């Protein structure tokens, strides 16, 4: 699986000093930052195709961090979230993590801990993105198959011989061989074993 | 009309009718029974069970349902007397006067602020004492209406009054179960339970002895003993002191009886002796009762004082906690920024070992650290000065004093502290939070009350004078609480010293605003001084 990591961090904090310091720290550490003062500003910018991870302050004016998390989920924006708070609010941290956040850190935090968390979040996002991309690619290849070729593909995946597939589909073995060659070509694989492995990997 | 009437209205309308009907039935039954007892077994004073039961029940019913049941009671009373074979005039007199006596008793209790939950001893005392007066009057009026010549001549009038007192004791005893029924489950009336049972026993004993034809002195002695136990025990509200009360009242009863039948009244007849004995008993019991009520008032005042203090302390603690939490949250932001800038600076320095130093970024990190530090120190400075970057709060000192005095009005009255306030109507606003200022004034008044309590040696009244005014330079307003302790302040001095003591109460926030709070004691007088900066305004300049 090809992991294509994007080191982009979407930071939302209403405090300008905190935003400025995080920008410098993260850029110094090799991250790309997007800074926002409020949840509303972030929601106006971010899209389902956006990459990276989110670093959110829990207490925000207007929509707070937990509500923003729910809103992102509703908009199908599935980026890993790291929450930060200066209030040491344990119940809130539990709620955030239960709702799917990666972790919760208390201000002031050490740079090592923050960078470690963000790296983990970005790696996770990259892996998730890679799987998603492979699945889209496979679906694209499957879309190119004709209905008959799909039936032959199903027979191959089930481990049937050409004669058995021909008998099932009530066509000649020679025709099955022709369809089989086209399927392998369209799915961009060398043989039937590679085809089966590709389908199983992507489904898993 | 009736068909169109909503069910709720019909129900509301039927309630008074049901109450009047039940009152009529109960009163008729009670009057018939008591008249049967009184007329069938006449001993020495045949009127009292009937009169007591009638007055007691009418009082209870009027208290429960209001004056609307009076006509029903009158009709029931007259009917009962006519059925018992009594002539029309006495029947009318008793039938009309007894419910009216109950009405007057209920009105008296209401005007005295009587609480039927019987949470206070004074309620019990009022219940027992308001009834006797009215019953005594009613029996006297009835006697005067039926036989004026006999009643107006000595010794009939005092004897009739005596009958009234005894009758009321019986009545109060007999209707004591009503109190048990009406008492709230969690109220202090539970404390009276034993006493009320004693009172009930006294009533039963009186009626029983009347029916059995026992001698009057025996009946009176027993009922007196039981009723005294009930009364005094209830006043002290301590069941474990019942034995002590029995002893005290028993000794008092014996002494009174000894005086009445002793050498001082040798020429008197039995009625006069009995009258004298009851006068002495009432005097003794009255003294005990007054003493008990005074003690209870003091106890309640102490309890309220302690409760108020704990509330003030809790409020102060909560304010401190809220302030600390808010400050921590505010400080956390610049601290967090400083930490991140410092980490970034350290990373830049590490990176400079392998390549050129990124001077601009490093400079930005250092500037951020300086800015964060300034922001944090600004928050701390603001907290110290109690001026977190907002307008200074202003408050009306005179209004705060008025509110504090209203809060403590009952306590000051119960402790016999007379307050005189000389407030300067032209006093400008002062720098203080309104609630904080009220708390400070309350604290000052509490200190004054404590000093008054320590200095109190007798029933003397203390005088507290509160004065507000501007200091000469018009930069500060001053309130002075001056207490005249009548030269009895020796016990108020500091620990191990008889000298006058002066100390300051630590009120940091007020001091930060430029105010002072000082308590100065010495000699006859005791002073608390509060000074607060005046808010600069056109009126004050």
Q: Could you explain the architecture of this structure?
A:
The complex is a heterodimer of chains A (204) and B (541). With 204 residues, chain A is of the alpha/beta class. Helix content of chain A is 57%, strand content 12%. Chain A has helices at 16-28, 39-45, 65-74, 90-98, 111-143, 147-157, 162-169, 173-186, 192-203, and strands at 8-12, 32-36, 53-57, 81-85, 103-106. In chain A, helix 7 (162-169) packs across helix 8. A six-stranded mixed β-sheet of chain B has the order 2-4-5-8-7-6. A two-stranded antiparallel ribbon of chain B has the order 1-3. In chain B, a hairpin with a 2-residue loop joins strand 7 and strand 8. The longest helix of chain B is centred in the middle third of the chain and has 82 residues, at 270-351. Chain B starts with 6 loop residues before the first helix and ends in an 8-residue tail after the last strand. Chains A and B meet through helix 1 of A and helix 12 and helix 13 of B.
* Helix-strand pattern of chain B: HHHHHHHHHHHHHEHHEEHEEEHEE
Strand coverage percent of chain B: 5-15%
Identify the overall geometry of chain B: elongated
Overall pLDDT metric of chain A: 87
Which descriptor suits the 3D outline of chain A? Answer: elongated
Query: Low-confidence runs of chain B (pLDDT<50, min 5 residues)?
Result: 1-9, 42-48, 150-161, 173-190, 486-509, 537-541
Distance between the termini of chain A: 13 Å
Tell me the number of helical segments of chain A per DSSP (H or I, 4 or more residues long). Answer: 9
Q: Output the structural class of chain B.
A: alpha+beta
Low-pLDDT runs of 5+ residues of chain A are none
Order of helices and strands of chain A: EHEHEHEHEHHHHH
């Amino acid at each position: 699986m090809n992991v294509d990591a994007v080191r982009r961090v979407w930071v939302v904090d209403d405090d300008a000093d905190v935003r400025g310091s995080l920008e410098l720290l993260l850029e110094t550490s090799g991250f790309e930052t997007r800074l926002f003062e409020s949840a509303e500003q972030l929601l106006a910018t971010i899209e389902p195709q956006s990459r990276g991870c989110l670093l959110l302050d829990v207490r925000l004016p207007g929509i707070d961090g937990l509500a923003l998390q729910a809103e992102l989920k509703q908009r199908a924006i599935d980026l890993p979230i790291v929450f930060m708070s200066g209030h040491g609010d344990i119940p809130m941290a539990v709620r955030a993590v239960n709702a799917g956040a990666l972790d919760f850190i208390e201000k002031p935090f050490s740079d090592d801990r923050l960078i470690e968390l963000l790296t983990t979040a970005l790696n996770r996002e990259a892996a998730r993105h890679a799987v998603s991309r492979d699945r889209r690619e496979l679906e694209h290849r499957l879309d190119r198959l004709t209905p008959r070729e799909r039936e032959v593909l199903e027979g191959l995946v089930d481990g049937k011989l050409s004669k058995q597939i021909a008998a099932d589909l009530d066509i000649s073995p020679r025709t099955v061989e022709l369809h089989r060659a086209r399927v392998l070509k369209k799915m961009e694989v060398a043989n039937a074993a590679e085809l089966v492995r590709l389908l199983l990997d992507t489904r898993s | 009309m009736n068909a169109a009437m909503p069910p709720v209205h019909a129900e509301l309308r039927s309630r008074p009718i049901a109450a009047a009907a039940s009152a009529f039935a109960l009163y008729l039954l009670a009057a018939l029974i008591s008249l049967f007892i009184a007329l069938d077994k006449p001993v020495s004073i045949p009127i009292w069970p009937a009169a007591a039961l009638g007055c007691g029940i009418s009082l209870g019913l009027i208290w429960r349902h209001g004056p609307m049941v009076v006509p029903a009671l009158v009709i029931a009373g007259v009917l009962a007397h006519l059925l018992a074979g009594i002539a029309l005039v006495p029947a009318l007199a008793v039938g009309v006067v007894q419910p009216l006596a109950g009405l007057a008793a209920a009105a008296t209790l209401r005007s005295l602020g009587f609480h039927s939950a019987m949470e206070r001893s004074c309620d019990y005392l009022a219940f027992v004492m308001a009834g006797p007066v009215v019953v005594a009057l009613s029996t006297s009026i009835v006697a005067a209406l039926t036989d004026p010549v006999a009643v107006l001549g000595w010794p009939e009038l005092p004897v009739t009054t005596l009958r009234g007192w005894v009758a009321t004791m019986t009545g109060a005893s007999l209707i004591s179960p009503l109190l048990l029924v009406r008492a709230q489950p969690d109220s202090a009336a539970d404390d009276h339970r034993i006493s009320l049972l004693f009172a009930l026993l006294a009533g039963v004993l009186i009626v029983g002895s009347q029916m059995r034809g026992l001698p009057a002195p025996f009946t009176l002695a027993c009922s007196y003993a039981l009723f005294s136990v009930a009364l005094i025990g209830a006043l002290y509200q301590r069941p474990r002191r019942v034995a002590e009360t029995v002893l005290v009242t028993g000794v008092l009863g014996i002494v009174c009886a000894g005086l009445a039948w002793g050498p001082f009244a040798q020429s008197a007849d039995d009625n006069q002796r009995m009258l004298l004995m009851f006068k002495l008993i009432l005097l003794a019991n009255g003294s005990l009762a007054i003493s008990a009520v005074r003690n209870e008032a003091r106890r309640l005042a102490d309890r309220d004082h302690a409760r108020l203090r704990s509330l003030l302390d809790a409020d102060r603690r909560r304010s401190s906690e809220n302030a600390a939490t808010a400050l921590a949250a505010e400080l956390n932001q610049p601290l967090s920024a400083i930490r991140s800038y410092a980490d970034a600076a350290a990373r830049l320095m590490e990176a400079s070992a392998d390549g050129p130093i990124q001077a601009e970024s490093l400079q930005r990190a250092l500037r951020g650290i300086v800015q964060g530090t300034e922001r944090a120190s600004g928050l701390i400075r603001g907290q110290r000065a109690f001026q977190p970057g907002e307008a200074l709060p202003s408050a009306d000192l005179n209004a705060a004093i008025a509110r504090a005095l209203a809060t403590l009005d009952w306590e000051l009255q119960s402790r016999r502290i007379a307050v005189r306030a000389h407030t300067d109507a032209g006093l400008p606003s002062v720098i203080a939070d309104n609630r904080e200022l009220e708390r400070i004034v309350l604290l000052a008044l509490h200190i004054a009350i404590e000093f008054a309590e320590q200095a109190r040696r007798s029933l003397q009244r203390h005088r507290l004078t509160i004065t507000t005014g501007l200091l000469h330079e018009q930069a500060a307003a001053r309130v002075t609480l001056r207490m005249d302790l009548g030269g009895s302040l020796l016990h108020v001095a500091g620990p191990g010293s008889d000298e006058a003591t002066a100390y300051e109460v630590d009120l940091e926030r007020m001091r930060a605003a430029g105010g002072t709070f000082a308590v100065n004691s010495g000699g006859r007088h005791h002073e608390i001084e509060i000074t607060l900066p005046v808010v600069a305004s056109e009126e004050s300049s």
